[in-house]
Amino acid sequence: MGQYKDLTEIARYEQIAVDLAGKIAHNEYKAGTKLYGRSTLAGQYNVSPETIRRAVALLQSMNIVEVVAGRGIMVINKDAARQYLENFNQRKGLAQAQHEFTELLEKRRELDLAIEHQIKKIMTFSSRLINILPKVEEAEISKSSPLINKSLKEVSFRAHTGATVLAVERRGEEYLSPDSEMVINEGDILVYIGAEGCKEKVDSLIRG
Question: pLDDT tens for residues 75-109?
């Protein structure tokens, strides 16, 4: 008697055994009475006599019926029939739970794969954006810089570096969106934005 998740997966002989046990448990066949012969049962269930033989053998192994020579198949134990049905339903319930658990594991595996795929996509797009989006950088004007006392326009800051100055920090004050005529002083910190590679150009321009 294997595991299954519904009646369609149970061997036909066991389906018949369960049906007969149910009838015995509900007094349709009472203890001490005789079941129909194998041929009659085979006709009722539309199966071969061999299938009936296996069903009866199963019931006999559970002490529900007894095959008596010269008398036929005798019902001997209603309580055993009830116990068999209870055990059957427990096995069926266990098999169903195992089947559902397996399905849930498969769904979780599919979900884990989908999540992993999305994480990889996010990482890929993030990596590309990091390389594409402009970066905010800072550069301090040293005392030896040739830019001192010159305006951003004079040194053609944007043309030479491809960067745009967002602010100038000077002695604790921040000048946002400075005019191109703003003169650069020693110690100024230029806050600028630009594409990848502009930092090297800005550093080179400041050093001279």
Answer: 999 999 999 999 999 988 898 899 999 999 999 99
How would you classify the pairing of strands 72-75 and 173-176?
A: unpaired
One CATH from 3.30.2350.10, 3.40.640.10, 1.10.1740.10, 1.10.10.10 for 1-133: 1.10.10.10
Q: The tokens of 32 are what?
A: 């001490």
**Which residue spans within the chain are E strands per DSSP?**
65-68, 72-75, 135-140, 164-170, 173-176, 189-194
Give pLDDT tens digits for 157-170.
999 999 999 999 99
Q: What is 135-207's CATH topology? A: Alpha-Beta Plaits (3.30.70)
Considering only CA atoms, give the Rg of the chain: 44
